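User: I'm curious whether this sequence folds into something compact or stays loose and floppy. Could you predict its structure so I can see for myself?
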Amino acid sequence: MSNILEKIIETKRREVIERKELFPTKLLEKELYFSGPVVSLSSYLNRRDLVGVIAEIKRRSPSRGVIREHISVEDISIGYMQAGASALSVLTDKEYFGGSSADLKTARRCNYAPILRKDFIIDEYQVIEAKSIGADVILLIAAALTPKECRALARQARSLGLEVLLEVHSKVEFESHFSEEISLVGVNNRDLKTFNVSIDLSYQLIPEIPKGIVAVAESGISKPEDLVALKKAGFKGFLIGETFMREGEPQEACARFISQAESLIAKSVGVR
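Assistant: Here's the prediction. I'll summarize afterward.
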């Protein structure tokens, strides 16, 4: 585990302890969204009328620093969906990414599409919290969890009706952390130890992902051509954040990206 990831997990453990005291589980279970319906990310990524973009709301990151600090989650999230995104990803980590649970609640209030809670989930409390704030999917990062921890968190998520996106960066991580409760596997093209990004990793790992499991490519997707090539390789979802968030109008950048991708896909199948 890299030094930065170790620091993030240490911070997250302290944060979870504090949140348990402020917002006990019984309180979370009384939230409006806790008993609400869950929207399937897998289903949306399999839709033929959408290209599979999971548009991310991201203020900053340890590797890139400040990306876009002052934003309207309402405007961007609605804009992303109007642009044709298949789903939303919302960073809820405050210390390192500038996000919050309030951001996801806002996105949920304004949208009916699937929403991924992007965070470092290490405790069962966070799974309950994800459901209470309106998330449909949680991210489990193999590099941050033992196989036993990952399986336990995935089981709990499924018991609440949530889907699980397992993030891996190697064949070893996939083989050790994958379980039957996981319906989506994300290949993170960014190495959490060095922060180097290479889309080649997605092409290397796609053969390892079983049929029936939705494959998601994460990080490093900056051009519509990248999406089209990855789709041909077998990926159904494409997590894109920084490419959009660095633009003056993220939602417009998303719309242009999707429109161009749709055109390329149409041409590739001979449609004029």
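Summary: The longest helix spans residues 3-22. The beta strands are 53-57, 60-61, 65-66, 87-91, 115-118, 137-141, 163-168, 184-188, 214-218, 237-240.
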